[in-house]
Amino acid sequence: MEKTITVIRGDGIGPEIIGQALRVLRKIEETSGCTFHFQEALAGGCAIDACGTSLPEETLQKCLNCDSVLLGAVGGPKWDGVPKEIRPEAALLGLRAAMGLYANLRPARLFPQLAAASPLRAEIAERGVDLMMVRELTGGVYFGEHRTGIENGGLTAHDDMVYTEREIERIVRRGFETARKRSRRLTSVDKANVLDTSRLWRKVAHRVAEAYPDVAFSDLLVDNAAMQLVKDPAQFDVIVTENLFGDILSDEASMITGSIGMMASASLGDGPRGMYEPIHGSAPDIAGKDLANPVGTILSAAMMLRYSFGMAGEADRIERAVSAVLDAGYRTADCMSVGCTRLTCSEMGERILRELC
Ligand code: NAD
Question: Whose CA is nearest to atom 8 of ligand 1?
Answer without folding.
Answer: 283
